[in-house]
Amino acid sequence: MTESMLNITLIILLLLGFVTGLKRGFILQLIHIVSFAVSFIVAYMFSGDLASRLRLLIPFPDNIQQQSVASFVFDSGTIEDAFYRMIAFAILFFATHIVLRLAGSVLTALTELPILRQLNKWGGGALGFVEVYIIVFILLYIGAVIPVSEIQTPIQQSSIAINIVQNTPYLSSAIQDLWTQYGVM
User: Fold this and answer.
1) Which three-class secondary structure state does DSSP give residue 184?
2) 46 near 85, Cβ under 8 Å?
3) Distances from the Cα of 22 to the Cα of 62, 75, 133, angstroms
4) Where are the transmembrane segments (predicted)?
5) pTM here?
6) Half-sphere exposure of 67 toward its Cβ, with a 13 Å CA cutoff?
7) Does 37 fall in a domain?
């Protein structure tokens, strides 16, 4: 995948997030965002514990040169530690997110109030964009850590992907801290 193809794909995903949010509306999208934030917090807090258990179940590839892998993402720490924390984070994040979204879907009756319909629609669009942006951020970050050059090369060559991974307020530093400094291994 070339730089421009990945950039176009990222732009399309972000626009689809906005359109999806418009269709869902603010209230339903707020439920999705809150479940997203709670999922992030749960994954952030417990990924270190799960990572130490995953280390026993999933072997780290032997043929990886740690200096060349994801060097544009990590300043310190080992790729192996980050690899297990990343897998643990993804498992916890997506499992928690699915459970909370299912629970939150019960509250969708509020989206049909006539007074709030327009505000609900545009607010949902904004929240949809934010939700997809964060999902794209996490997927790009995971892709940057996975020791496969077919995944890392397009990310490293995409100006939008690099910008998302390195310059997202708070999340860029929080994820880097999570996967390189924190977590008992």
Assistant:
1) coil
2) no
3) 46, 39, 15
4) 6-22, 27-46, 82-110, 122-146
5) 0.59
6) 0
7) yes
Mean pLDDT of the residues in the chain: 79
Coil, helix or strand at residue 2:
coil
- CA 101 to centroid of chain Cα atoms: 16
Does 185 fall in a domain?
no
| Total count of domains within the chain | 1
Q: Which residue has the tokens 């997809």?
A: 132
Structural domain span for residue 29: 3-57+69-180
pLDDT digits (tens, 9 = 90+) for 152-177: 888 888 888 888 888 888 887 787 77
Rounded Cα distance, 34 and 22, in Å:
17
In a domain, 158, yes or no: yes
- How far, rounded to the nearest angstrom, does the alpha carbon of residue 93 sit from its chain's CA centroid? 9
DSSP assignment of 42-74 equals: HHHHHHHHHHHHHHHHSPPPTT--TTTSSTTT-
In-domain check, residue 88: yes
Res 94: pLDDT: 92
In the chain, the N- to C-terminal Cα span, in Å, equals 35
Q: Is 3 exposed, middle or buried (0-12, 13-18, 19+ CB in 10 A)?
A: middle
